Description:
Layout: E1 24-26, H1 28-40, E2 49-52, E3 69-75, E4 84-86, E5 90-96, E6 99-103, E7 106-110, E8 115-118, E9 124-127, E10 134-140, H2 142-147, E11 153-155, H3 170-176, E12 183-184, E13 191-192, H4 195-198, E14 210-211, H5 213-221, E15 235-237, E16 254-260, E17 270-271, E18 275-281, E19 283-288, E20 291-296, E21 300-304, E22 310-314, E23 319-325, H6 327-333, E24 338-339
Antiparallel strand pairs: 1-21, 2-3, 3-10, 4-11, 5-8, 5-10, 6-7, 6-9, 8-14, 12-13, 15-16, 16-23, 17-24, 18-21, 18-23, 19-20, 19-22
Amino acid sequence: xxxxxxxxxxxxxxxxxxxxxxxxxxxxxxxxxxxxxxxxxxxxxxxxxxxxxxxxxxxxxxxxxxxxxxxxxxxxxxxxxxxxxxxxxxxxxxxxxxxxxxxxxxxxxxxxxxxxxxxxxxxxxxxxxxxxxxxxxxxxxxxxxxxxxxxxxxxxxxxxxxxxxxxxxxxxxxxxxxxxxxxxxxxxxxxxxxxxxxxxxxxxxxxxxxxxxxxxxxxxxxxxxxxxxxxxxxxxxxxxxxxxxxxxxxxxxxxxxxxxxxxxxxxxxxxxxxxxxxxxxxxxxxxxxxxxxxxxxxxxxxxxxxxxxxxxxxxxxxxxxxxxxxxxxxxxxxxxxxxxxxxxxxxx
Length: 348
């Protein structure tokens, strides 16, 4: 019997392991050359001098990892972008110069190695009021939303005021609200929820937040005093409380800034979330699936393709790095699998 084109037979074969992309290092020299290329372009109509950094193996999306888009954004002195609004969220990181961002009407003056987030559907623009190029790395879940065919983007959107919902009359209450409400179906905890509750979950305020490097660095440097007996990683997560237990900077990503004293070697570990590191001081190496990759300040690295065994080591100087990882998204989806030590069982 002929099988319909809608169906793909999966009878019998065992589950296939994921095909891991190789870890890659984008050297500082290539980033600098791309910055200069973008800076030499005529100013685009929308003010965006931008290049996406895409993994060579990526046939699925525009990401450096499948669900993580990384953009290199450049503004000349005196330039600003048009406002944008989109349903993707962003983590922004200055790698050169200074400037400002206006997000949801709030201005942030930003400097070298500052981090800030852009929440979903907040109108935003960026400006360079400094004397040199403003260069940012912008990390976004846009790559994932584009694979899902739901990335909503507006250029120069009109101002939007909050909508005030009218109070329901008694008659409207009868027509629009189920008299049964949400209720427990059994003692195991299964519930039934009516339509009006389904489409109107409790809202959580999502703010643009700013982590200035001038305030983060002194706190980070204190971690060196933990000494060689400390088995954790010397880092701080740039935590956004609206993400709750998923521990994010945005609902999709965490952003951590790490200090690695000289000659520190991490133990090998792995996780289903992908990790992207930008090194802005020092040198070192990463071993990913048995392959050793050297890196230095100014390099960007996909250091942990999902589920690849990896570890990192610093050389003779202190290392500072920003790591973006889609762990919060995986926690929310209940897809995060983590193995902190290869001698211990997997954690879910």
